[in-house]
Amino acid sequence: MDAGQAPQVSALLAERVSKRYGGVIALDRISLEVYRGECVALIGESGSGKTTLLRCFNRLTDPDEGRVLVDGADLAAADPFELRRRTGYVPQDGGLLPHWRVRRNVALVPWLRGERESDGAAERALRLVGLEPERFGSRWPRQLSGGQRQRVAVARALAARPGVVLLDEPFGALDAITRADLQVTFLALRRELALTAVLVTHDLAEAFLLADRVGVLRSGRLEQIAAPADLRAQPATPYVRDLLERARVAG
Amino acid sequence: MSAAALLLLSALQASEPRPVVVASKPFGESYLLAEMFAQLLEARGIEVDRRPGLGATEIAFRAIRTGSADVYPEYTGTGLLAILGEQPVPDPRKVFDRVSREFRRRWNARWLPPLGFENTYAVAVRRETAERYGLATLSDLARAGRSLRAGLTPDFIGRPDGLPGLTRAYGVRFAEVRALLPAVKYQALAAAEVDVIDGYSTDGLIARYDLVVLRDDKRFFPPYEAAALVSGDLVERRPAAIAALTELSSRLDEATMRRLNRRLEVDREPVGRIARDALVGLGLTAAPTGAAAGSVPAERREEGSFVGYLWERRTELFGLARRHLLLVALSLAAAIAAAVPLGLALERLPRGAEVAVRAAGVLQTLPGIALLAFMIPLLGIGVLPAVVALFLYSLYPILRNTYTGVRDAAPDAVAAGRALGMTPRQILGHIRLPLAAPVIMAGIRTAAVINVGTATLAAFIGAGGLGDPIAAGLALSDTWMILSGAIPAALLALGVDGVLGAVERVVRPEG
After folding, report:
1. How far does B426 lie from chain A, in Å, by closest CA?
2. Distance set, CA B303 to CA B122, B307, B308, B309, B433 (Å)
């Protein structure tokens, strides 16, 4: 979007995507493009459709109408399991397998992909998120703090070097200090690995801190999508202005 | 159930040539007559399979109808009223003619000529009660009944020729009617817990407790002539067996029978010895030179402790425990093989799941004895119907725990596994199943403990096991005999639970 940068390559594209659950409209002809190397944050209230949109990019949800493309390929024809194994995913609750040690948890996707060196990949990913494999690799998930568990979940998402990482409120359940630590780690990782990421969050400050662009969703539609500075300067709708006002009061 | 288990069962069921299956109902006189039938057949060179105490009228007669048993002692009045459902007739000859004709026509079952005595209902009171109220007849009882408490068998309370008919014929009313099992009614009367009981006119215990039997002055109770009830199959294919059994016809009178019953119920002589003495006394068999008769439910109690009693029977009890364990192991293995995969499949079919789990739950609510009785027309008697019934009983706890355990296992981890590209099969095998394993094992343990207990009822359909001494002990009012089955069964339940508990610790996932 910004003039003067290298030409932008589309990594993810949603075109006029709709999704209904019974009588409830979750997504209403929404379109979104995410460029390679970019991090887009999706923000909105519960039920605004932000998680549903995120789940369209790894086929946890299939749209009723419209199409979704990853690297130019229509997902309707993609094998969902193969797609998910090349798409990183971090849920809010970590979702670690409680009966698997940390190393095996992190090695999950390389193992699913049939990679021989899955333990090596797991150890590299643990180092990326700041956990020494020698100290943490043999622990059980219940022996970790909440922040450590989310670090393991991020490592697990990165272990197979995915093209795209989807994060669903990844730091939402953590205390403020731990959350700030993880946000710093995530920022560093983004730069180091040139990650393409979609981040769902309900925290505007987090969105502004981590994302190149912030999309505001309301009732399954995109109210506005812009870089943090532009959003702050020129809210496109009264809803976005209200959101900014409330964030300013709160923050 | 797997094919291998069925094969094994059919191998256990029977081998050719088939011995004559002699059954009895679970009370002393029936045991004794059946043992006399058995010894007489053996004396004539015919091989016998004894199924003492097979079950009450319903179960024993079904076994004859379906060919699972060949002969058992029955009473003409029971045939007329309880089985044919007809009105009582006072003339014994007419009753016999009627049941002979109808049983042959409807079920091809035959009544051999009666044994010579009647064992009809008797209403008995303690001697002091009889003296205080001046009771000699049932008409006297109608006068005094309102001050007396009756302890009656459930059978008697329900039958048209029992309490309802008695009330109609004599106008008898009691202050209170309590349902008592046959095994405890004499003790209850002797201990003055009740004042009036129903019994049988040939009961040996009537003499032991010095009871007064009230005379049926209006000839209300229908004739209950004892006779051998045999299957049509035996009549058609084993004429020698029929000839042997007919030798007993008209040879036993009421006095003889009461004397024999007294030896069994009061003196606690072994049923085999009483039967042998009786047959020798009738000149039907030669006096034995040494060897004792075969399987005998009651042994004379020597002086000594209960532990000594158990120790004397250790070989027999060990064999019964092994049979018991076989019933439990086969039925439990089949239930695991069926319910665990079904529970896993139901996780994918949430709509069918509740229906299937509830259906298994309904099976669980059927009384054990009813389920076993239901098996007889389908599968006969013996090991197979018992294993099938126990299998059905074991399904519910295993199915329910498998289904809910797998459904509720770590939803966060399941969602994450799916989002990262695990297939449903991988999620089941690597997440749901390992995490549900302790819950599934808990269901299996519940099923196993229920199964060990319920398997004691298998004795009533001739499957053997530790229920044998329990059933025989109940019939003979022999507490030690009951305990000699009940205590090992309880220990077996604890042992099985302990072993499965160790398995549960092994399958419990770490972390």
Report:
1. 9
2. 33, 12, 9, 9, 57
